[in-house]
Specification:
4 strands, alpha+beta, about 40% helix, 4-stranded antiparallel beta sheet, about 110 residues
Length: about 110
């Protein structure tokens, strides 16, 4: 059985950080014109994990900004090949991330304020 993915942190409208079996995964939203509005799931490498430990939330906001501006839908982007949503497991990964963040989405926040 796969370890459960769990919510760690997020920046509304920009990114979610989830963890599974001590692996940190950044779900970074990106868009391009009116054509693309989706996210890339990036496994934090050792240097990114170290930078996250040092810089916390602000570092992840900067990293998500870099992912967005790199155009991760293009092969030239350094994040294109790292995007786990491009793998054969994309459907399962999207479901696992969705389950981990369900209580932290914009809609969930709205329900709590009603």
């Amino acid at each position: 059985m796969e370890p459960v993915m769990r919510y760690v942190d997020h920046e509304p409208g920009a990114w979610f950080l989830v963890e599974q079996d001590d692996v940190l995964l950044l779900d970074a939203r990106y868009s391009y014109s009116a054509l693309i509005d989706t996210s890339a799931l990036i496994r934090l490498d050792d240097s990114e994990r170290d930078a996250y430990r040092a810089g916390g939330h602000a570092y992840l906001s900067d990293l998500a900004h870099r992912v967005h501006h790199s155009g991760p839908y293009r092969e030239e982007s350094p994040y294109y090949s790292r995007d786990l949503y491009r793998s054969a497991d994309s459907t399962a990964l999207r479901a696992a991330v969705g389950a981990a963040i369900v209580d932290h989405t914009w809609i969930a926040e709205q329900h709590r304020t009603d």
